[in-house]
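cron nightly-structures :: item 1 of 1
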Amino acid sequence: MSEHVTAADRAAQKKLQRRVIGVAASAAVGGFLFGFDSSVVNGAVDAMQQHFALSDGLIGFAVASALLGCAAGAYIAGGLADRRGRIFTMLLGAALFLASSFGAAFAFAPWDLILWRVIGGLGIGIASVVAPAYIAEIAPKYERGRLASLQQLAITLGIFAALLSDASLATGAGGASEPFWFGLDAWRWMFLVCAIPALIYGVLALRLPESPRYLLMHGREPEARAIFETLWPAKDIESAVTEANEAIELDRTSKKASLFRGRRLLPIVWIGIILSMFQQFVGINVIFYYSTTLWKAVGFGEDNSLLIGVITSVINVVATLVAISLVDRIGRRPILLTGSIGMTLALGTMALAFANATTINGEVHLEGPWGMIALIAANLFVVCFAASWGPLVWVLLGEIFPGRIRGKALGVAAMAQWIANFLITVSFPAMAAASLPLTYGMYALFAFGSLLFVWFKIPETNGLSLEQAETLFTRKGAARTAGGAGA
């Protein structure tokens, strides 16, 4: 009988695991939208610049304009998710993204294109906050790192799908500027295809359960328990509900939730902001926003440049899968440190390669082995980022903030991430025109800075409950603990 019960228990456990993975993966489709929208512009950059006769500065702003919307969307998402629920917030993000895909596809002027990309950015910013928060709140603590990493995996899959779609459309039309189905230019179809993942995300969100933590916050404990029962092992449900209720009650008896102590931002919020900014300041999105333009400039044709982008996105996905498999085995801190070292070396190599470039008729050319060295270094950089800072920043942002400020703090951290992304994206065309070695050298310095920040400020949170992780980060002396954590 005991063997039969044990087998039944194992079957029940596997069923719960499949269920929670399915729920987390559905929520992470918001990350797919982020990746898709971020990279779909890659194949359209040159065609848009030619169609609207844009300068280097203006094309940079057109590409980066969505990120302004992302910053605003991330800022409002936390409060909205706490007031109206995680599911409502996901649906709003999907609707904004859907509208943007049609608006950008039929843009008739630069300002019109920029407007619709900002609206789409609002949707992406909302999704970027609610997805990691939701996943952290429904995931059992021993699987939280792996499940939270699904957000970054979805981003990488979105990047891959966008670049593959761009390459297919440009090849089918004979160029991104050429007319394709129904006489629409291929670059317009690149934006129109964005409607598909937006619709999928909306449908999936309608099928998701509400966050148990949100329900407990609003006094709906029976509903929260019922959802926990479909996702967590029975032995962990009571402790999960008790811990969450205690944290919520403590929050209610304390002062009104604030990100400030006096006039100063709480240290834990600064940690989230700096993590987010380092993730972007290493220049990862330059690879996915401008790689087609960059590789064309160093001698590859449009078809080959688009193909290189697709290959890079595949590498991105595979490396992210590696991170997901390791995050709950060896912890957050060692992976981040290793990734920072690899990124620093790869970006430094790219700076060296472009320092040996020649300029012919105003265009950069990498002669001899330098073109291949730059290409290999760029892809090694993607590997190091995708296997570390890409997914793990989302994991940490989902678990470091106290429950009373989690929504707001996630919004601020995500907003900082989008602003940093905007600054890197809008500045790259002008900086690249001035000096590619200096540009990649700057990214290498930021990668080295990320190494120092993790070493001195980030403790290990692997295997801790959300409440324990929050305490570790917020208690006095956490910075000193971080110096030796995980050693």
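cron nightly-structures :: done
Strands lie at 260-261, 264-265, 358-360, 363-365.
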